[in-house]
User: Fold this.
Amino acid sequence: MGIKEIVNSTKIYWLTSDGPERDVVVSSRVRIARNLADIPFPGVMSDADAESIFHAVKLAVAKRNDIEFTWLRELSDAEREILMEKHLISPDLLENHEKKAVMLSEDETISIMLNEEDHLRIQSLLPGLQLERAWNLVNELDDLLEETLGYAFCEQLGYLTSCPTNVGTGLRASAMLHLPALNIINQINSIMSTVSKLRLAVRGLYGEGSEAKGNLYQVSNQITLGHTEEEILKNLNSVIKQIIDKERKARKALYEEQRYYLEDRVFRAYGTLKYARLLTSNESMNLISDVKLGANLKIIDVDPNVLNELMIITRPSYLTKYAGKKLDSHKRDILRAELVRSKLKNLN
Amino acid sequence: MLCEKCNKKSATVHLTQIVNNKKTEMHLCEECANKSSFISHTKSFGFEPEFSFQSFLSDLIGSDYVFSDKSAASCPKCGTSQRDIAKGNLLGCAKCYDTFKEQLLPVIKRIHGTTQHVGKVPEERTAGKTKLVKKLRDLKSLLKDAVSKEEFERAAKIRDEIKALEKKLGVV
Ligand SMILES: [Zn+2]
Ligand SMILES: [Zn+2]
Assistant:
């Protein structure tokens, strides 16, 4: 499979496959930052440096014939944006993309971003709560890479990175959580402040600060130095398990105590999604979140993976890709509503 | 943390962007954030998975940073200057960590609470030990296989390899 097929495939592995604790945890991500010792960091490196990194890394993973490479400049704007919305590359990679490149495995479980803030960002993204497996995939690829590449490393500070916030393990692990019930009972802020005391960070996805579109939140480690990779992952995992537990309890309590309120909300959301002729991105995210909650509580019979998929394919860049041309926001809202209707119609 | 704009409400919105290799971060209350134009051109907002804690580097450095005559004014390898670092620019190369050690260590201590790495170490630094241990394990299972198939010549060869490896690892 070529890189273009991977980019353009509508199947998004981490989003539409099953995984552990999938009722609350949408996905798990682990990434590590690595740099080559002898080449200046991406911020100040030359075009020739960028080329040599690309070729060195390509050579280093030659054994893995499931991994495909491309310079970002060889992709179209829409393709780059899709990679971002699939969360396979970060938004930073879109800017000044001349020197940047990406490598993806066919199954989309692992990717390497080249010449972003660091020379290499090796990332694994999996459905549900699978931090350990994601780390194993990343670690394995890192082992292969270091057989050939001379990493910037020092005994005291570990792996050296462009920004001192990543130094040490270079490890950033996170999980995307769907927390509608905790949001309804106004518990998100207190969880955020508790979690931040544990040197972890929580933030809304697609939203600002504590406000999250579609009730999606990301929890990640803050500190990369002074703990082993296993310790960092264990700590994060145990906090996430506690949040999962709280969310499940809140869902149950809500359903027991405010059954009609909740059922009404779920079915109204479903009705709107099913029949609306215009849907903004914001509105659809929130409605999909409500239906997802209803599906998890078995109030309504809708495949949660279809809802996950809807969350992504209703994003502006997908709609642009789907339409094959730039659309104004009104046209997007029409197309979004059409897409949602047809997806939900196919279900029954 | 209080909002940087009004200094009244607590900052709940944390924004970062990187422009020309310089990281800028703002901490605002909900209200000021809504008014801020920063959001509208922070395209990546809401996607970048790690900004809420990447505390504004120049803030961190600014308060700790002491211009020193002792360390070089700029990095001999990449040319990044003390001034660049003080402004909160990203580091230019691995050598920068050496060059500006004195300035960076307090910053790193403040971010991570420590300045000692304890995680993964590249294989070559451990003289390939972890890999050898893994190889040893593989060889031992190959030996079992060879013995069970009564391929004694092959088994003898594997046994020699195991002995050599064990000697290398100091097991024997
Ligand atoms: Zn304010
Ligand atoms: Zn330097």
The first strand of chain A starts at residue 25 and ends at 34. The mean pLDDT of chain A is 88. Chain A touches chain B through 64 residues (CB under 8 Å).
